[in-house]
Structure prediction request, 506 residues.
Amino acid sequence: MKKIKYIFLIGMLAVAATAFVACNDDDDATPPATFELVNAGSYDIAELDEKDFIVSTIDFTTNSSWRVYSDKIWVLFSTTEDGDYFNDLSGVGGAHKIYMKITNDARTFEPAGAKVAFSYGSEEYEFGTIYRHAKSHSSEIIDENNNSVDEVVIDATASATIAIKASYDYGIKSYPEWIAEPTLYNGSYILNVIDEFVPYALAGDFVIASTDGSVEHTYPINYAGMNPSVMRIEGDYSPWGWEVALDGKTFRYEGTSLEGETEEIVVENSIPFTVKCFNYDYTLVCATENSDGSIKVAADAWLTANEDAAAKGALTVCAKPYAATDARSRKGYLFAVPTGIYDDFMAAMKSAADAVTFVDEHIDYVLIEATQKDIFAPDGFVVTDATGAAVECTAETEGDLYTWVSSELSVTDIYSITGVYGNTYTVNLLITPDEGNPAFAIYDADGVVPSRRWGSPTISKNADGYFELKLKVPAASSFTKPLILRIHRNNVNIKALIVKPVNNLF
Prediction:
């Protein structure tokens, strides 16, 4: 029995050995790893100039595990078109479709190639090299409206803001001499026309270049010049409220000091201004404001300006002498009118209803508003007696009478004389028809005084063109308190004369 059992075990080992040998024979018969490229999708590498990436497909079959990879970071793979992409991808045997993404990552201005290959089993299949051409040197100008433009346009404001987009590191190489150095602000450049060039329409080139100097791009830059209807007037003095001496040599007006105090400004001979308009093309127009408030071109331009040949737009306003006769003064304006609107300006003046409205509508063209008169004449009033002798007329600046009259009439031009009982006085108001017709009222602290008590005075115009009136001082019994002569125009008080009794206690 023991011998039979041993023989059985030996037989079993023999079978096992045979089986083992048979298994090894089967391994030797395993087919080799295979790879077949079924289809490679097409793509246009030029699309990378417009897109961030392009995607193509690769269909293949293999009986082995596999791996696809690229030696550049800009070629990636995924098993789904919208999935995550990797620099290499692997799988098991079978039929497969994978997606290959070619990107613009790490793109330079030199051409480059990426090797793509499959490994399967112990073998490798070279798919090929993906060639990507060099990145182009491109740039564009973006205007204030975020539009890409072919040229830089600066409008009549003389300023523009642009942004520059480029595929390379760049700098501004050059720009026209009439442009100030561009200022970088919030990623954009501010371009300003230099002041002395502002009036003109101009054109030039705006050039950007790569920092290595290998490439540059040129864009036209055009400035439209000033709006033909715009006039800019500047100066150290106000254009308003000037008074000019009869000889035309002295100009004066009331201005405000730096401390806010009212002060008298006096300028001798002429007043400087600067003007600026399209191509410095303008016409000076002198207009007269008539006593009825109308306006018309002066028959004789008595307000003029001398232009400085060496400094464009610099001029000095002058006045011609005035021989005052019946009209003791004249009022007018000097306008600087751009040629582009001259015809419309003149037509508007011809049809203007009044000077105030016309000037308000054309205020930007006013160089100066001036009244020419005897600015050295006495202030207030000139008073003479029946013989023509001058009567002392004193300016009142303080005291009870000044306080009463100034608060009552809201005026500060207050003067006084002493009235002798029974005497007649001629009071020259020093107001001319050009300034508007004045009116008067006579009263004392107790109320209105009948004018007949004072000779029933009326206003008339004297030989010199001034308004005047005559007063006859009543008897002492009728004149015991100071009298107020209120001068007004359209019920707006202008000034006042106080007539004091000879026994004045005030």
The CA atoms of residues 50 and 104 lie 10 Å apart.
